[in-house]
Specification:
The protein has 3 helices and 3 strands, in the order H-E-E-H-H-E. With 152 residues, it is mostly helical. It has a 3-stranded antiparallel β-sheet with strand order 1-2-3, with no helix packed on it. The longest helix is centred in the N-terminal third of the chain and has 39 residues, at 2-40.
Length: 152
């Protein structure tokens, strides 16, 4: 009898094992079928005209916006020997200049009038000593020449 019970217990275990394998395989088949059904279902998406853009080829430039102060490495102080209105400015800010280059022209009318005015005789000597060739006769507008010092 011992042998019969042993065979029965083994048969029951084998049947339970086969039933479990069959159930796992059928669950797997059902899962694969539902996944393939979802994949074959087509979905339609409606796009509004405002969502569509026309692509154009363009060059892109990279910029970096920063705030702060810019300081020059080299700078020079420029001043004229006489006061007057500027008649012409020959350079702009940021242009390269060299020593002796004409930067601006001063209108000579103001200092010519000071030279011919009789009330300003003492002052006239002082002005005439600073002016190039102003002696009552008409002269051409003179140019201010500047020598630059290299500052460190």
């Amino acid at each position: 009898m011992k042998i019969k019970t042993r065979h029965v217990v083994i048969a029951v275990i084998l049947l339970a094992l086969l039933a479990g394998i069959w159930r796992a395989l059928s669950a797997r088949r059902a899962q694969q079928q539902s996944a393939s059904a979802i994949a074959t279902t087509q979905t339609s998406i409606e796009i509004a005209q405002s969502d569509v853009l026309v692509i154009q080829e363009r060059n892109l430039t990279q910029t970096l916006g920063v705030s702060g102060t810019v300081k020059a490495l080299n700078y020079a102080v420029i001043k004229a020997k006489v006061a007057g209105e500027l008649k012409e400015v020959t350079v702009r800010e940021g242009d390269r200049v060299s020593a002796g280059q004409v930067l601006a022209r001063i209108d000579p009318i103001e200092y010519q009038q000071l030279g011919t005015n009789s009330k300003s005789k003492p002052r006239q000597r002082n002005i005439n000593s600073k002016l190039p060739n102003v002696s009552g006769r008409a002269t051409k507008p003179w140019s201010t020449k500047v020598s630059f010092l290299k500052l460190r």
